[in-house]
Write a structure and sequence with these properties.
single chain, mainly beta, Immunoglobulin-like, seven-stranded mixed β-sheet, six-stranded mixed β-sheet, 4 helices, globular
């Protein structure tokens, strides 16, 4: 088992637009994947595949939900915060009958899944109007990685607003890592981290201009829609936490009092062996799977969100102005409480997880610069290579079944997590220093002043998709590019 301290390792953190909308093929719910009961901390509905098929109805709507012991009007999938958890296996067919009952157009992005990027699959250019229905359908490859993925809206210009409203859910692919005996016997819990800012009437508050520039953060932080829920850890046993940062802008720097994390996966991809860390940094969109040993004195231990400064929008970059709603820069915030329960037989950590092969060196190197500036039509904009997003412009074209290196430099005043749709990558270097840990990721933190080099294989699926900053207000305000993968 590899040991890293927190300085050495933290989680680093249009084609298909003519796809048909359908309403006549709405099927009976009794033949769909049926929801299963969950533990108290995971009270959301769970839909699991059966006989190679995951099929369900999914409705986006505004719902009145209980949030921090008050009623709030939030955006939900099937009336739930967070949304129902979906579980499938490699090779399964997924069929989701989606109805948009919001007052805005929307669509769904299956974050981290390696599936088709055109048609009615992971197509971010679909525009599903209020009152319309569509059937999303795709098949997971037989060798699809098993791991923690998720789904959320991705209609440009509305992404941050709709995610901040509550639209987010886990998509779990069950596979090889779940069959490792030490992991299979661990107690499994799912933690969806979200923040909200309802007003005194429970209505979703309109974000101020500076909040959008910084990336909005809410004054209520929830775990699975709850404030400080209880999580149970068997004494001598093992707790497996699957953690998702489903906030549009907030970074979570996680630590568990008097306990270490033994990380086993990043962004849905297994590590080669567990890594011992004392904290985790999860940027928006990132996921981490960790094991926690039940080897401390019986009692209660707080899961904390530690302070993190992700930068500021000073006066033209001078660093003097900060968003007052960003409330986790000065002191830890309690997210959940881990409670020891009855003892079990001692469980050991696994020693090996997955075999990871390094990608071959690339002959193609592209450079991307992340920064901000002014746009004549919208004012402040966030830029890639000096340009705000333009839906009609093709920014990058790559060939299918090739490998490229992308060098991403952040010359701005805020940290930016960089995400590519559809294809995971390996991190090669940071500021010219080779990466010591070989992993697969779909989102990488590029801190202000840093340059990160990643290596991407473009495999299996052609079509048009995007890459962007996953502080989603920055994406909506221009920090995104169109990517064409062409055979």
């Amino acid at each position: 088992m590899t040991k890293f301290n927190r300085r050495q390792f933290m989680v680093l953190g249009a084609a298909g637009t003519g796809a048909a909308l359908v309403s006549s093929s709405w099927l009976r719910s009794d033949i769909f994947s049926q929801p299963a009961p969950q533990s108290a901390v995971n009270s959301v509905l769970l839909y699991q595949s059966s006989d190679g098929l995951l099929e369900l109805n999914l409705e986006a709507s505004e719902s009145l939900v209980n949030l921090a012991n008050k009623q709030a009007y939030l955006l939900t999938y099937n009336g739930q915060i967070p949304a129902p958890r979906l579980e499938a296996k490699p090779g399964d067919l997924v069929r989701i009958h989606f109805a948009n009952n919001l007052e805005q157009p929307t669509n769904i992005h299956y974050h981290g899944l390696h599936i088709p990027i055109a048609g009615n699959a992971d197509n971010v250019f679909l525009h599903i109007n209020p009152g319309e229905k569509i059937t999303y359908e795709f098949q997971l490859l037989p060798d699809h990685p098993s791991g923690t993925f998720w789904y959320h809206p991705h209609l440009h210009g509305l992404v941050a607003e709709q995610l901040f409203g509550g639209l987010a859910g886990l998509f779990i692919v069950r596979g090889k890592i779940d069959e490792i005996p030490e992991i299979q016997t661990a107690q499994e819990e799912f933690l969806v981290l979200q923040d909200f800012s309802p007003d005194e009437r429970g209505k979703r508050a309109t974000s101020a201009h500076m909040s959008l520039m910084m990336g909005r953060e809410g004054n209520i932080i929830t775990v699975n829609g709850q404030i400080n829920p209880n999580i149970f850890l068997p004494a001598n046993g093992m707790l497996r936490l699957r953690i998702l940062n489903a906030s549009p802008s907030r970074f979570y720097r996680l630590a568990l009092e008097n306990h270490l994390f033994y990380q086993i996966a990043i962004d849905g991809h297994s590590l080669s062996e567990p890594i011992e860390v004392n904290e985790l940094l999860l940027t928006p969109g990132q996921r981490a799977d960790v094991l926690v040993k039940g080897d401390r004195e019986l009692g209660q231990y707080r899961l904390l969100n530690l302070p993190y400064d992700r930068g500021s929008m000073g006066i033209m970059g001078g660093g003097m102005m900060r968003d007052r709603n960003r409330n986790n820069q000065d002191q830890p915030i309690v997210l959940a409480t881990v409670n020891y329960k009855s003892a079990v037989e001692f469980l050991a950590l696994p020693t090996r997880l997955a075999s990871i092969s390094a990608l071959p060196e690339s002959q193609t190197v592209r450079s991307f610069e992340l920064n901000h500036g002014m746009n004549p039509t919208v004012g402040m904009a966030f830029l890639i290579n000096g340009e705000p997003y333009n839906g009609a412009r093709l920014d990058t074209e790559v060939k299918l079944n090739t490998v490229e290196d992308w060098q991403i430099a952040n010359t701005g005043v805020m940290d930016h997590p960089f995400h590519i749709h559809g294809n995971a990558f390996q991190v090669i270097s940071r500021n010219g220093t080779s990466e010591s840990l070989l992993t697969w990721r779909d989102t990488i933190l590029v801190k202000r002043g840093e340059t990160v080099r990643i290596r991407i294989p473009f495999r299996d699926f052609e079509g048009l998709t995007v890459y962007h900053c996953h502080v989603l207000d920055h994406e909506d305000l221009g920090m995104m590019g169109n990517l064409m993968i062409k055979a």
